[in-house]
Amino acid sequence: MRKFLMITAVLLVVLGILLAVADRVGVHYGEREIAERVAARMQSQGITSTPPEVAIRGVPFLTQVAAGRYDEIELTMRDLKGGDLPLPLLTVSAFDVEAPLKELMNDTARPVAARVEGVATVSYADLVKASGLSGITLTSAGDRIVEVSGNVPLIGRVSGKAEVTVVDGGRVRLRVTELRGVAGSIRQSIIDAYKDRLAVTLRPPNLPFELKLSNVTTEQTGLQVAFAATDVQLA
Length: 235
What we know:
The chain is an alpha+beta fold. It is elongated and about 75 Å long. 30% of the residues lie in helices and 43% in strands. The chain is built from five helices and eleven strands; from the N terminus they run αβαββαβαββββαβββ. It has a six-stranded antiparallel sheet. A five-stranded antiparallel sheet has the order 5-6-7-8-9.
């Protein structure tokens, strides 16, 4: 009896290892297939970036395959081209993705996500470059507020604040709200007249998965840009 129990225990351990290996192999295969399909769909939509990197979250993977529903699929895209606002890195999370096993097997699956969220961080240096406001630097100064400092033509050294907002149905607007010169350098009325011209509106690149700009926040590392969409076909 003891021998039988030992053999059974060993078999169960081996079976568990085999299932774990099969699960991980399945994940890698699924990630590769999704990456290829997403890349093809992005190309057909004229979206330019490096090939997407895919990570399927949630375990066990094989259970998700059998159910035809995946908890979360994370996609990472780098160096998105187009638009006025650079997105060097875009991370997208697709939640509650439906892809029936039968359709996957006969290559007719069109995975659909109930919710998709994306986030990208734009450095303040890249934001300044995109805005064309040469000679200044930006740093975080609160909720959607950045500190402005530097040298501007004909005025000299200045400091102040600017606000960053979402406008025009999916664009980022940077507008200087306060601007001061060094003591005695130039009249404030001239600085105010110059300040009123310091507003730019930037358009993000074409985005996959019907993502729309939903929010911006000013973090220490840069401007964090958030996107969202619902009921999206991934590939």
